[in-house]
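Q: What does the assembly look like in three dimensions?
Context provided by user:
Components: two
Sequences:
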Amino acid sequence: MTLRIYVVDNGGQWTHREWRMLRYLKVDTKIVPNTTPLEQLDVDGLVLSGGAPRISGEGIPMGESAHYVEDASFPILGICLGCQFIAQQLGGTAVSATTAEFGKTECIVDDPNELLAGLPSRFTVWESHNDEIVQLPPDLALLAHSENCGVQAIAHRRRPLFGTQFHPEVEHTEHGREIFENFLRVCRG
Amino acid sequence: MFDAVEFEQEATAALREQLDGPAVIALSGGVDSTVAAVLAHKAAPTALTAVFVDTGYMRKDESARIRAMLEPLGMQLRIVDAAARFYAQLAGVTDPEVKRKRIGATFIEVFAAVAAEIDAKVLVQGTIAPDWIESGGGLRDTIKSHHNVGGLPADLGRLRLVEPLRDLYKDEVRTLARHLKLPNAERQPFPGPGLAIRVLGEATPKRTATVREAVAIVEEEFEAAAGRKEMELPWQYFAALLPVRTVGVHGDLRAYGEVIVVRAVQSLDGMTAAYSKIPHSVLERISIRITNSLRHDVNRVVFDVTNKPPGTIEWE
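A: Here is the predicted structure of the complete assembly.
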């Protein structure tokens, strides 16, 4: 069975790169606007892309994303802004980062969970974020951190919701394809 | 993985539908536009005119090299020398976005004039994914207006755009170019606005000549060092001229000239890039050659150690 996983576009530089990663993994995929109603998403999983909007700003244009995070029955992987949004929507806090991270960073795994399963305990990831999660709600588990950012990866304790602050879709991130493969495994159920 | 055979079939089938009359192909000699042109030529060979524009912002000997490369491809080829027009459009311009938009608009004027002559209503471009991604729109911020997307005027008049490579990145276009046996499959990326965006500040003919020579030195030295196995050839490598003057000493006399920055990156798709770890002996040779041969204009050379992000590959 071919998996169908769409990419929700929040205006990221690498949204299309997420689409390419999914295509290379033989997934039936397309990029959809974040205003797409949840009822129209007949999918096995969803990727919430990063984007230019700042989570620390007012009235950010996240469209229907809150609805996806609250009500979707399928797995969701939030990346960068998408990850921050999941945490904030579920009661956590994301603010302007004390130290922003751009480009190369080392990701340190605290709890591999399903998302980071099979990966080394430390690996190189690439980042591009001005904001960061500073507090997780009780429902979200911390999977990884970096020197300058306390939350690099998250997973919901009961639902198939995941997030990475770093960008597993870009070429310079190590093990990015494996992270997507792990997410696909969850989507396959 | 990317399947060049499948892509070629799908793209030429789509192009046969889209090219329903005479069309102009924007052809820079780079791998993207050459692949787009060859696909279009395969789909509808009789009604196409490929247009190569010499903007005056080309690299050393580039126009002649490109002409020699393009002629054997068997397309109807038109070469337009528009250097004076481009220089006039960029006189007094220092803002990189204004530069890019004026360049985009001037390209379109040239293509529209040829289109009018041959009654074409379609313009084929080799636009690839990073071009429209970085040009922004909607929720996406404008990082830089690529001349073939964000640099286009809002109204293209009677011209309709056809862009067969919109969803591809450079590595995929190269795979396609190798499959099509094109001679420029491995050519390093060169931006559409050319040297105009490697001259920070006003891109006058004189400052452009300076950066042209510096770019040639960087290319020669890196390619020679890679040939001697002293280093791997970077994905993209060039020089840019900075509008900053610094003090130096030339033969007991005070010198006060501008700065050349050397940039070299390793990348796959241009969307992330790591600065290349170039041996100091190679950088030193480049520094000596540039500061000696361009002594009237340049007296300092620096090397850029910024990744993308936060930098972009080009400086503007």
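Follow-up: Residues 5-188 of chain A form a domain with the Rossmann fold fold (CATH 3.40.50.880).
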